Amino acid sequence: MRARRVWAALAVAATAASLSACGGGDESYSSIAEKLQKAQKVVVGTKWDQPGLGLKKGADPEGFDVDVAKYVVKELAGGKDVDITWKESASSNREAFLANGTVDIIFASYSITESRKEKVTFGGPYVVAHQDVMVRSDDSAVTKPTDLAGKRICQAAGSNSYKRITDPPPDGELDLDAQLVGAATYSECVSKLGGNNLDAVTTDDLILAGFAGQAPGKFKILGQPFTDEKYGVGLKKGDTKTCEAVNAAITKMYQDGTMQQLFTKWFGQAQGLKAPTGAPTFEPCA
Amino acid sequence: MDDLIKYAPDLLAGFLENVKLSLICAVLALVLGTILVSMRVAPTPVLRAAGSMYVNVVRNTPLTLVLAFSSLGLSDTMGLSFSETPRTNSFWLVVFGLSAYTATFVCEALRAGINTVPLGQAEAARAIGLTFFQSLRMIILPQAFRTVVAPLGSVIIAMIKNTTVAIAGGYLMESAFVMRDTFDDTGVSIPIFIGLVIAFMVVTLPVGFLTNRLASRLAVAR
Amino acid sequence: MSAGVLFDAPGPRARVRNAILTAVSVVVLVAAVYFVYARFDAKGQWEGELWKPFLEGSTWTEYIIPGLLGTLKAAGISAVCALIFGAVFGLARLSDHRWVRGVAGAVVETFRAIPLLLLIFFLFFLAPSVFGSGDYTLIALVTGLTLYNGSVLAEIVRAGVRAVPIGQAEAAQAIGLRKSQMMRLVLLPQAVTAMMPAIVSQLVVLLKDTALGYIIAYVDLLNMGFKIIPAVYFGSLIPAAIVIGVIYVGLNMSLSALATWLEKRTRRSTRTAATPIAPPGFVGEPDSTGAGGVGAVA
Q: Which of residues 134-163 of B touch C (CB under 8 A)?
C-alpha cells in the first residue's frame, strides 16, 4: 500500500511541475515600444559572463551593454522609470529568446550579420567593436595580428573568431598557421592566457577590454583592429516600430554625450581602444 | 541527406577521434581499474582507504567537471604537459581524465566480481600457502574477471559514448563537436544525427554482443 | 566475501612486510598530495584573495545556490519523467503482446545506445525548428536525460519484476487474478522494493549528467561555478571548480549512501520475496537475477 501512495504522490508532483512549467502568459502589445509606454516593464537579455559588457554582479548584471540598455529602455518609455527584468541570453539562444518572447529586447554584444538579420530585427548599431588581439603585457613577440603565425591562440567552443586568423576569406581573413588551443568559454581562454598556456586571445576588442580591466596591467590589447562588429539591439523580427525608437534613443545618447561617458566608464582603462565620436550609421529597420 | 554527404568527411574524421579516444582509454581504464581494486582489497589499511576515497570522489564527480579539471587544473595550473602541440596535449588530457573516471567504474565492477568468488577459493589458496598477491593473481582475479566480463562490457560501452564529452576538456575535434558546428552552419539535420548514432552503434553493439558471448562462454559453473 | 579473507592473520614476517608496505604507501600518497599542493601553491591558487569570494554570503545567494537550484530542477523534473518513462516501457517490455514488446524493446535499446550529449545537442537544435523558438536549454536537457535514464530504468523495472520468484505469479494466477491485477497487487509492490537501490543508483547517474547542460548553456551549478563566478572574480576558476566539485560529490555521495541503505534494508525486508537487483553496470551477487548486465554507467 505504501508503495502505491508514493507513486500517487510522485504523479501529483509531476502534474504540478508540468503545470507550473507551462504557466504564465501576458496581455500582448503590438510592439515592445508600446509595452514600455503602457506598462513600464520589460525583459532585457544581456550576457552574464562578460566583464565590462554584461556581468552578473549580485542580483543584476552590470556593464556597458547593461547601462546602454537602461538608457535606451527609459527613452522608449518616454523618460519614465521602467521595471526591468534581466535574463541571461547566451550566444546560443539569443535568436530563440527573441522569437518566442522570453526576452523583449537584447543588448548582448550582438553583432549584426546577414544571417542573423533573417531571424532578428536589429536596432542600431549602438557601437562598433573590432576584432583585436590580446596578449600578456610582458609579451613583446606579438605586436601585430600577423605575428600570430606559429603561436598558440584560443578557440572558444561556439565562437568563430579564431577563423579570422587561421582561415583564408571568405570564412576567415589572415590565413595564418596558428595553433589552436581549445576552451569552453572566453573566461577559460583568458585564464589560460594568464597561466602562459597560450599566447593570444582574439575576439571583439570590447570583450577583450572587459577581461583586461579585471586584471589591470596583466594583459594588453594590440589596438590593431581588423574587422568591424556592429553591436545591434536585438528585437523580435518585424518590430520596426521599436527599432525606429531605439535608433532615435541611440542618436540622442550620442548627442548628449552619454555614450562617450559610458564608454570611458567601462573601457577607459584599456589601452589601444578608441572611444566612438559619433553614432554609427544605422542599419535599415527591417 | 545532402548535409550528411557534404559533411561526411568532417564527421568521419570526428568519429575516428572518438574511436581513437575509446581504444586508448579502454586499455588505460582497465589497467588503472585493476590497480585500484588491488588497492581496495589490499592488506594495508592506508591503501584501502586511499583506493576507496579516490573511487568515491571521482565516481561521484560529473565527467564534465573531471575533464574540465584535467585541462584547467592538471595542465594549465600544475603544468602537466603531454606534448608541445596544443591539440595533441588536449587529446591526452582528455584520455587522462576519461581513463581516471572510467577506472573507478572498472574498479567497482571488479570488486563486485571479487565478491562473487566463493570464500572457499580464497581459503583454499591461503591453505596451500599462496601469498596475498599470488592468490589475487592466480585464484581470485581470474575468476572475478570472468564474472565481470558482461558488466565491464557495459562500462566500456558507456565510456565509448562518454568520449563525446571531450569538449569539456578543451578537445574540440570529436564528432559531437563537429555535429554541433555543422548545426550552427546549416541548422539541425536529422540525417547527420542518425548517421552518427549509427556510427556509434556500429562500435558499441559488437562490444556488447562480444562481451555477452564471452561472459556466457567463460561463466564459472557453480 | 570481504577483503579480509584474502589474507591470513599476519605472522611476524608478514607484519613486517605490511608495515613496510604501509610506510611506503604513506610516503607515496603524502608525496603525491604535497606535489599537487605545491604546484597549485606555485601558481598562487591558495591565495586568500582567490578564495575570499566563497566566504561571502552573496557568492552563495547570488551564484551558487541559484545554480544548485537549476541543477536540482533539471534533475528533479528528469527524474520524475524518467521514472514514468521507465515504468511504462519496462512494463511494456513484459507485455503479452509481441508487437508491444517489440516496439518498447526497440525504443529502449535505441535510446540506451545513443551518446547522451549527442542526443541533447540534437534535441537542442531540433526543438526550435519543430516547435518554433523558445528557451530549449532546460527542455533539451530534461528530454535527453529522460529518454536515456528512462530507458535504463525500464530495464531495471523489467529485471525487478522478473526478480520476483515465479511462485508468486503462479499463486496469483491460481487464486484467479487477472494479469493486470497480478501485476498491480502482487508483482509490482514486491518488485519496487527490490528495484529501489538500483533506481536510486541510476538517479545518481542522472544527477551527475545534468552537468552536461553546461555545454548547451543551461544555467546550472557547473555553469554558475565555471563560467560566471570566474568571470566575476578574476582568477577564481580553480577555487570555483574545487568548491562546486565538493558540492557535486557531497550530493551524489548522500544519494549513493541512500541507495546502499535501501539495499541493506531490502535484504532484511520480509515485504518482498525478490532479492534486490543490481544497479546497472554492476555485477550481481551470485544469487541475484543476472540483472548485472543491464544498462550502462555514465
A: 135-136, 140, 147-148, 150-151, 153-155, 157-158, 161-163
C254/B contact by beta carbon, under 8 A:
no
Local structure of A49: helix, strand or coil: strand
Dihedral (C-alpha) C243, C247, C248, C251: value to the nearest 10 degrees? 170
Peptide bond preceding A145 in cis form (omega within 30 of 0)? no
ipTM, two decimals: 0.89
pLDDT digits (tens, 9 = 90+) for A157-205: 777 788 888 888 777 788 888 888 888 888 888 888 888 888 999 998 8
3-state secondary structure A26-48: CCCCCCHHHHHHHHCEEEEEECC
Q: Which fold has domain A32-128+230-267?
A: D-Maltodextrin-Binding Protein; domain 2 (3.40.190)
Distances (CA, A) of A278 to A85, A108, A243: 30, 21, 19
Cell triple for C253? 555521495
pLDDT tens figures, C218-273: 888 998 888 888 888 887 888 888 999 999 999 999 988 888 888 788 777 777 77
Using DSSP, state whether A176 is helix, strand or coil. Answer: coil
Chain pair B-C, CB pairs under 8 angstroms: 200
pTM: 0.85
* Phi, then psi, of B198 in degrees rounded to 5: -65, -40
**At the top level of CATH, which class does the domain A131-221 belong to?**
alpha beta
Residue of C120, C161, C228 to mutate, testing the A interface (most A Cβ within 10 Å of its Cβ): C228
B146, three cell numbers: 570472468
**Chain C closest-CA separation from residue A194 CA (Å):** 9
| B186 interfacial to chain C (CB closer than 8 Å) | no
Percent of chain C with pLDDT over 90: 37
Q: Of C118, C151, C218, which to mutate for an interface test with B (greatest number of B Cβ within 10 Å)?
A: C118
* Residue B206 grid cell: 559488437
What is the structure's pLDDT at B208?
Answer: 86
As a whole number of angstroms, the distance between CA C12 and CA C17 comes to 9
Residue with cell 519484476: C161
Please determine, for residue B207, whether its predicted confidence score (pLDDT) is greater than 70.
yes
CATH of domain B20-172: 1.10.3720.10
DSSP state of C215: G
A192 and B76: CB-CB below 8 Å? yes
- Whether C234 is in a domain gets the answer yes
Q: Rounded to a whole number, what is the distance in Å from the CA of C174 to chain B's nearest CA?
A: 33
Domain count, chain C: 1
Question: Nearest chain C Cα to A195, which residue?
Answer: C43
Return the H-helix or E-strand segment holding A241. Answer: helix A240-255
The 3-state secondary structure of A56-112, one letter per residue: EECCEEECHHHHHHHHHHHHHCCCCCCEEEEEECCHHHHHHHHHCCCCCEECCCCEC
How are strands ordered across the β-sheet holding A131-136?
A201-204, A131-136, A219-221
A153 close to A202: Cβ distance less than 8 angstroms = yes
Please check whether residue C121 lies inside any domain of the structure.
yes
Min distance B14 CA to chain A CA atoms (Å): 15
Domain ranges of chain B: 20-172
The answer to whether residue C161 sits within a structural domain is yes
Q: Measure the CA–CA gap between C82 and C260, rounded to whole angstroms.
A: 21
Q: In chain B, what residues touch C212 (CB-CB under 8 Å)?
A: 62, 64, 165
Which of C6, C71, C285 is the best substitution to test chain B (most B C-beta atoms within 10 A)? Answer: C6
Residue in this structure with the C-alpha cell 579570422, named with its chain if needed: A164
